[in-house]
Amino acid sequence: MPKLPAVFMVGAFPPPVHGLSMANEAIAERLNGRARIVKFDTVGARVRSGWAGRLCRLGTGWAVLRFAVMAAVRRPSSIYIGLSGGPGQLYDGMFALIGNLLHVPVFIHHHSFRYINRPSRLTRLVFDLAGNATHIVLCPDMAVRLKQLYPTSVGETLVLSNTSLFPAAPGGHARVRGERPLTLGFLSNITREKGVFVFFDVLSALDRRGLQVRATIAGPVADAIGDEFNAALIRHPRADYVGPVSGEKKTNFYKSIDLLVFPSSYENEAEPLTVIEAIGFGVPVIASDKGCIPSTLRRGGGACVVDDERMAERIADFVVDVASSPGVYEALSCGAVASVMNQAPSQAAALRKLLGMLTRTDAVDGYVISDRRIDS
């Protein structure tokens, strides 16, 4: 039996569980059986401070040295880096430089808009240290902006949506509006930046317009806003908080709502899973215009609004239009289902392409964008 190629993976892995660690682990799972995976988990140095942080940074320094020796001896087929959104890029850059010096193909997977919304010298340095790396992006819009902001540092890009790693639930179907009031849903880590209080503002705006809706809120509540969140729930008796959801509870959440509201103002928002999951269940989405959300909803299934002081009013306008026209609602739901079906083949091909590139094995044609502008 031929020896499997080695893939060195750098970045955050669960625990803790968050978007970046889940995506890195999902890539590792897809490589299972196709490659020998060697993980270098650098998350500890990024989340601790004080003496604990210093010890973790020493540990990361040792990991870099170990990585260099192992890469020189074992010559992996590729180096995959789940890029940090902030100062952790300092460590990512060290791993990227080693790959460049050893002429091992480097793949940088982007999961944040932080260094796109605010161009960073550190990010540019990391890209330069990585040399002729392949940049894995979440949507065409992300590829365009990376090329515009870092034109001399970013060459080949490959578009790989989170839909390829976290497929929409099977069996999604178009919804039909009944006579009952709309149920609006909110699912996220419940923080001010993720828009939970804008969601409550939407409910208030709908009350002023005489439109009765129900609301279901799910997700863990941040300690910093616990009291304010509970007070808002008391002011909105038709809003139910169901706590964190996963598995069957999450499925039941999506089945119970008519419209997902995602008014995030989080500046690093990239391609939130809750938006992808909602459209997979045929649930239309109204969301802020952050990250790859416009690219996702442009394919069908919802709409975006500008993140400004009138966001809640604009979302309320949208809800009123949907509530007053069953045909509009059904068209949005059909668009959600169609967007998932239409996107699936190209994203499956993109994932196969990436796995083939990481392992240097044959792969089918994927969705690769090489050094050119993408019409978006």
Indicate the topology.
Elements: E1 6-11, H1 19-31, E2 36-41, H2 44-47, H3 50-74, E3 78-82, H4 89-101, E4 106-109, H5 114-117, H6 121-130, E5 134-137, H7 140-149, E6 156-159, E7 183-187, H8 196-208, E8 214-218, H9 226-235, E9 239-243, H10 247-256, E10 259-262, H11 273-280, E11 285-288, H12 293-298, E12 302-305, H13 311-324, H14 326-359, E13 368-370
Parallel strand pairs: 1-2, 1-3, 3-4, 4-5, 5-6, 7-8, 7-10, 8-9, 10-11, 11-12
Antiparallel strand pairs: 6-13
Helix pairs in contact: 3-4, 4-6, 8-13, 13-14
Walk me through this protein's architecture:
By secondary structure, the protein is α/β, with parallel strands linked by helices. It has two domains: 187 residues, Glycogen Phosphorylase B (Rossmann fold, 3-Layer(aba) Sandwich), CATH 3.40.50.2000; 156 residues, Glycogen Phosphorylase B (Rossmann fold, 3-Layer(aba) Sandwich), CATH 3.40.50. It is 46% helix and 16% strand. It is built from 14 helices and 13 strands. The strands form two sheets. The protein has a seven-stranded mixed sheet with strand order 2-1-3-4-5-6-13, with helices on both faces. A six-stranded parallel sheet has the order 9-8-7-10-11-12, sandwiched between helices. Helix 9 links the parallel strand 8 and strand 9. Helix 4 runs parallel beside helix 6 and helix 8 crosses helix 13. It starts with 5 loop residues before the first strand and ends in a 6-residue tail after the last strand.
